[in-house]
Amino acid sequence: MNWKKKSERSWGRLGMKCNWRIKKLSEIAHINPKESIGKGIMAKKIPMDKLQPFCRDITEFIWEEYKGGAKFRNDDTIMARITPCLENGKISKVSILDDDEVGFGSTEYIVFRSIEDVSDADFLYYLVCSPLVRNPAIKSMVGSSGRQRVQTDVVADLDIGLPNIEEQRKIGSILRDLDDKIALNNAINNNLEQQAQALFKSWFVDFEPFNGTMPSDWEIVPLEKIADFQNGYAFKSKELLNEPSPDCYQVFKQGHIARSGGFIPDGTKSWYPKSLTSKLEKFVLKKGDILMAMTDMKDNVAILGNTAVMPLDNEYIVNQRVGHLRANGYKGVTYPFIYLLTNSTDFLVDLRSRANSGVQVNLSSSEIKASQTVLPSEEVNNAFSEITLPMFEIIINNQLENQRLAQLRDTLLPKLMSGELDVSGIEL
Questions:
Q1: DSSP strands (E only) in 274-332
Q2: Number of domain units in the chain
Q3: What mean pLDDT, rounded, does the chain reach?
Q4: E-state strands within 333-394
Q5: What letters, b where the CB count within 10 A reaches 16 and e where it falls short, cover 183-212?
Q6: DSSP H or E run through 352
Q7: In sequence order, what are the residues at sequence separation of 6 or more whose Cβ sits closer than 8 angstroms to the Cβ of residue 233?
């Protein structure tokens, strides 16, 4: 029996349309295409830490002298090939370069480029994100523990069911529209948070509405005056679950806190049965709770002290080495004030200076609670909350919408990539 025909029939039994063709991934995409950047030339670099888990868009880059690394152009897909970055979903589509500009990044990237009239760039990105490519890539990893890497030749040799170019564009368009809405919500949230941060700095750092001087009826108090604090719970690893269920809390870990602050819904995922939490009610998170990263690496302090706002009630339970702050209502202080305070430059510099240094850098509960903050009058706190609480409500609602959109995208992705959902009748 002809192997290719046998393969096509196998795909058909899995739901792939008959007019789709089996192709090697290396026939669909240029893998690690050759590009040139002169040694010593300053170019845009996308380090691994600029890729967000399960996020199409790259929002940050640095300028750096080129000395080596993977090279790419706009519309290329870059996939982390090293553990745990690939498992964590670090796959993005390059869009931060100018026309005909070449950028570079980590040596731990595999670069995929669409082939004209063979593959669509959006379709290719979502294909690489799909289980059809990610799962075999992860299984192909070899190397010592903690430094395992994808075997590029295994990925290149994968059999892929490929629709015609028009169907590819339709599939790419459906998924792209979902990610575009997520990106729009993120842009709105970033703008709102920048406005809130600017207002916080104007009122409580520079005292601009108060003639540049802290009013005499304000105080300098420890953080514990305005927020109740506790460390997270030390869960036993054998009690944690890797898959969700209706009767579980998701465990909030440091992976849910973004650099510079903010909530990452696709952070490290573990679940804990509600049946085991009868004595752990104080660790169950409420909407508006503030979560702080208490541990970081000594040689790369990135998120130590940064915080995230919990957008949901009774969905998460907090893990150890994550600080849990809850506004206690003293003099009208609400959670936006605490969030903006803990992510402000002066607060972070002071807090990090008091961290315990070793192989890791750790914040103690006592140092967090003792951190000094300005305490405005109740009248000013009420005025600040009146402005910022609606802003953070929009931010939270957008975050929740993004979670729903991401779930829809992730549900559609394997069905579209297998041909289970027919898009041939859709007009772009």
A1: 290-293, 295-297, 307-309, 316-318, 322-327
A2: 2
A3: 92
A4: 356-357, 360-362, 372-375
A5: bebbeebeebbeebbebbeebbeebeebee
A6: helix 345-353
A7: 280, 283, 317, 318, 319, 320
**In contact, 387 and 378? CB cutoff 8 Å:** no
CB 290 within 8 A of CB 355: no
Residue written as token pair 């140092």: 367
How many degrees, rounded to 5, is the angle at CA 24 between CA 18 and CA 30?
125
> Which is it for the CA torsion 141, 144, 145, 146, positive or negative?
negative
| 248 & 118 share domain | no
Q: Is the peptide bond before 84 cis (omega within 30 degrees of 0)?
A: yes
CA distance 76 to 111: 7
Question: What does the pLDDT look like over 344-377, one tens digit per residue?
Answer: 999 999 999 999 877 789 999 999 999 999 999 9
pLDDT confidence of 1, banded at 50, 70, 90? very low
Q: Residue 327 in contact with residue 227, Cβ under 8 Å?
A: yes
Looking at the structure, tell me whether residues 324 and 223 fall in a common domain. yes
Choose the most confident range, by mean pLDDT, from 11-20, 70-79, 136-145. 70-79
Report the CATH number at residue 19.
3.90.220.20
| Whole-structure pTM value | 0.87
- The answer for residues whose C-beta is within 8 angstroms of residue 300's C-beta and 6 or more apart is none
∠ CA 28-53-276 to the nearest 5 degrees? 130
In a domain, 348, yes or no: yes
The half-sphere exposure of 212 on its side-chain side, counting CA atoms within 13 A, is 0
Q: Per the structure block, which two tokens stand in for 177? A: 């529209």
Cα dihedral value 302, 304, 305, 311, nearest 10 = 70
Beta pairing partners, 69? none
Enclosing domain of residue 287: 208-376
Residues 113 and 29 sit within 8 Å (Cβ to Cβ): yes
Tokens describing residue 189? 């949230």
149 and 217 housed in the same domain: no
Say whether both 145 and 226 belong to one domain: no
Whose tokens are 């996939």? That residue is: 79
Residues 13 and 153 both lie in one domain? yes
Which pair of tokens denotes residue 89?
């979903």
198 domain residue, yes or no: no
Joined tokens for residue 200: 């916080």
Distances (CA, A) of 388 to 176, 188, 234, 333, 401: 32, 14, 34, 11, 20
